[in-house]
Amino acid sequence: MGTRSASTGISGSNRNFPVPNRTSENTNARAASEVQVAERFFLIGQEGAEEIGHPISSNVIGHIRTDKPLYKPNDVVFVEVYLINPTSKKPFLGQSTPVYRMMQVYDLDGLPIFETNATMAYGGTVAFTFKVPQNITGGEYNVVVKDTSLPMLMRKIRISQDPKLALFITATFDKKNYSPGMEVQ
């Protein structure tokens, strides 16, 4: 559970949230309510960090980009994750320490079929790749990228299962050469 301090804010684990320092009574009451909201968010975030996220979530917009919208079995999917500061419209630089991110791909029933990890370095981008299995069922799949301190991101991809048709066409001709306008039988 977080502890409250007038100078450092709410802290718990390795998280510090600033508490506004105001002097008048009206602003003190508002600051107290903001502390309660931040503390409530913090406690909920501890219980369900994957769904709720972290207060930094409101300051970051995440975007997942894939190299194409439709894949076939044995294709390699390239996934890029961008974090953007919505006020400056620039990449979210975050902390100087790398952030650990996890990517999962869920099937039609919501079961994970693939999982990998990567480190998001200072700069707000990270890339993942995975190979679509040969025996996968066609349909929509969810690519989910998450960690404990930033927003959970999700993107749908489609996987088609087109059977390769083997067509053999044989033709026999009654002449060696044909000219334009001649009829082939």
UniProtKB/TrEMBL annotation:
<protein>
    <recommendedName>
        <fullName>Macroglobulin domain-containing protein</fullName>
    </recommendedName>
</protein>
<feature type="region of interest" description="Disordered">
    <location>
        <begin position="1"/>
        <end position="30"/>
    </location>
</feature>
<dbReference type="Pfam" id="PF01835">
    <property type="entry name" value="MG2"/>
</dbReference>
<feature type="domain" description="Macroglobulin">
    <location>
        <begin position="62"/>
        <end position="148"/>
    </location>
</feature>
<dbReference type="InterPro" id="IPR002890">
    <property type="entry name" value="MG2"/>
</dbReference>
<dbReference type="GO" id="GO:0004866">
    <property type="term" value="F:endopeptidase inhibitor activity"/>
</dbReference>
